[in-house]
Amino acid sequence: MPSRARTLSAPIADIFVSVQGEGVYCGQKQLFIRFAGCNLDCCYCDEPAARTGAKALRLTVRQLLRAADLLLKNNPAGDVSLTGGEPLLFPDFLNALIPALKRRGLRVHLETNGTLPHAYAKLGRKPDVVAADIKLPSAAGKALWQEHAAFLRLCGKRAFVKAVLHSKASRGEILKTIETVALVDREIPLIWQPATPHKVRKISSAPGSLVKWALAQGRKTLADVSVKRQMHVLWGVK
User: Fold this and answer.
1) What tens digit of pLDDT does each residue of 30-46 get?
2) Are strands 29-35 and 9-19 parallel, antiparallel or unpaired?
3) Looking at domain 7-235, does it have CATH number 3.40.50.1370?
4) Residue 235 in this model has a pLDDT that exceeds 90
5) Residues 6+ apart with CB under 8 A from 232
6) Which residues face 131 on adjacent strands?
7) CB of 134 within 8 A of CB of 162?
8) Domain chopping of the chain, boundaries
9) 204, 194 in Cβ contact below 8 A?
């Protein structure tokens, strides 16, 4: 490992092995590395500690890999999810981490809010899978359509898109999400994810009628559109 990579560090909120509860790879066993810190403050955020960095540990790449190796020795997994928070706040760290994870035979998933295309462009070794969230303005407090489109253009076939539908989501936002994906590549999978109610933010899911409408509208334009809930909440795992 290059000497500079040995000194790089990032705030890590958690590292654990569990079952993926969202997206295309729902049900797959993965190692999760949860970064702390985020550039957004979405109304339905279910990881406030990771967003703020509360109780995060500052780890070097070497320290993080050592912790990963110990976890995988007792609980093997073939895939690793870099999640958050927002991992792309630390592109230099990822540039040192991702190749080391790949050398261990791990397929690397990046879970991101999809708003930092310039950071993603800095990654020399790309993740194998990109789970890119599209943030509705009613959730993020601002429109991020240009950032999402630029990000998806960089990811290409590596990406699938998630969009959380909560009680304040509008039909206009739903149509704009579909349009944003379609203008990049209509083959990119889009998953509508009804918001999971939680005590921290007191957010409720979008009405079932709106979710069904979003599914029907998406299928008019895109090749792969589905609805999937957060299953790990129902399973009672991280």
Assistant:
1) 999 999 999 999 988 87
2) antiparallel
3) no
4) no
5) 18, 19, 20, 21, 22, 238
6) 111, 160
7) yes
8) 7-235
9) no
